[in-house]
Write a structure and sequence with these properties.
Length: about 375
């Protein structure tokens, strides 16, 4: 299995006449992508660490930021704990719906079991059911308060309302104070959502094309991965893939998201987590020369401090990690050298340009010397 591919049926040879950017396989579009053994990615060791424990910060600014992040992580839950929290909320919502149905039946007298009860017995049953409903609602609110995505969505909507002027009080000072507080809380919740904090450079192995670098930016709720180094199919400057990170309604956080991949016990021990969150996206492929470019269904899969992107119809993934400063410079220089080699006209143009510039300055210096030293009264 090639480094960067999680699919066991991955095939590095294109199956049709087009040499597409991503190798094709026979896997179907609904196949789940599972990570292999961490040792399969040993080639990345010089690029980024494979452990989940970050190195100690080397400066005070970075240390302060990490301490802030640690404080926020104690406020919200992430990873496997977040998946379990949301499942618990779903169970409580079912119980809440059933309790409300029971209350309606009791209050309306539709259940025969209460036909022969005295009024005080019915009232007691109603009071007990209402108390149960209140307890469930409280539990749901408490759990949702630990879900960064839920808090982010709710507070973002409230922030929009305040900025629109609909919720600002009669005193401008009170409105500004609430606005600044909400902005801070929204930003804190966002910092605890890994998929919204992936800005910057990442490196992954694109099959036979080798290692390539992408730069991740955001346009609203859309993650965009643009190639910093490219290949003969999808060159640098083109978008490799996009991911839709739009938040669903707070009552249905899984509504527009894919269910997380659940690892088996062996893989869970190897990677230190049980669930891998996924988000829908679109990946670009093209024939050589950036021809017949097209977009296809894709998935962003979060794997701890790393991630992968899967081109689903062709059953292939690229595994990404943060590059070191040395690797970044090395890849950028290699890309520039390759481009110069491929374009001989550009090479010759560059040589002529450099020669012309050198000749210009030599002649200019000579002209200045002649003008200056040829002037009467000049001490030579």
């Amino acid at each position: 299995m090639a480094v960067g591919s999680f699919s066991d049926d991955h095939n590095d040879k294109p199956r049709d006449k087009h040499d597409t950017e991503i190798s094709r396989s026979n896997s179907n579009s609904n196949a789940e992508f599972l990570p292999g053994d961490p040792e399969d990615y040993s080639d990345y060791e010089d690029t980024f660490p494979l452990n989940e424990t970050p190195h100690s910060p080397r400066n005070e600014k970075r240390r302060s930021r990490w301490e802030r992040e640690a404080e926020l992580q104690s406020k919200y839950v992430v990873g496997d704990e977040l998946v379990n929290l949301r499942r618990k909320v779903s169970e409580l919502k079912v119980q809440l719906s059933e309790a409300r149905d029971d209350l309606d039946k009791i209050a309306s007298g539709r259940r025969r079991i209460y036909d022969n009860f005295r009024d005080d017995e019915v009232r007691s049953e109603i009071i007990a059911t209402k108390k149960h409903i209140t307890e469930i609602e409280g539990s749901i609110r408490e759990l949702n308060g630990k879900d960064p995505e839920y808090v982010f969505f709710v507070l973002s909507e409230r922030l929009k309302a305040i900025e629109g002027g609909s919720h600002i009080g009669s005193h401008v000072e009170t409105g500004e104070k609430e606005l600044n507080k909400l902005k801070k809380e929204v930003e804190e919740a966002r910092l605890c959502m890994p998929h919204l904090n992936m800005h910057g450079l990442w490196v992954g192995k694109y099959g036979d094309h080798g290692y390539e670098m992408v730069n991740i930016t955001y346009s609203g709720n859309i993650l965009i991965a643009t190639k910093v180094t490219g290949d003969k199919n999808v060159p640098k400057g083109q978008i490799s893939f996009t991911v839709d990170l739009s938040s669903p309604s707070p009552d249905n956080l899984h509504g527009s998201h894919l269910e997380p991949i659940e690892l088996n016990s062996v893989a869970s021990r190897q990677w230190g987590k049980k669930f891998l969150p996924r988000h829908p996206g679109k990946g670009q492929v093209a024939s050589e020369g950036y021809k017949n470019a097209q977009w296809m269904e894709g998935q962003l899969i979060m794997v701890g401090r790393f991630f992968s992107f899967a081109w689903v119809p062709i059953g292939h993934q690229v595994f990404f990690g943060r590059p070191s400063a040395e690797l970044t410079l090395k890849m950028m220089r290699a890309q520039e050298e390759d481009e110069m080699k491929k374009d001989h006209v550009e090479v010759m143009r560059d040589v002529v340009k450099r020669s012309w510039e050198e000749t210009y300055w030599v002649e200019r210096d000579a002209a200045v010397d002649e003008l200056y030293y040829g002037t009467d009264g000049c001490f030579q």
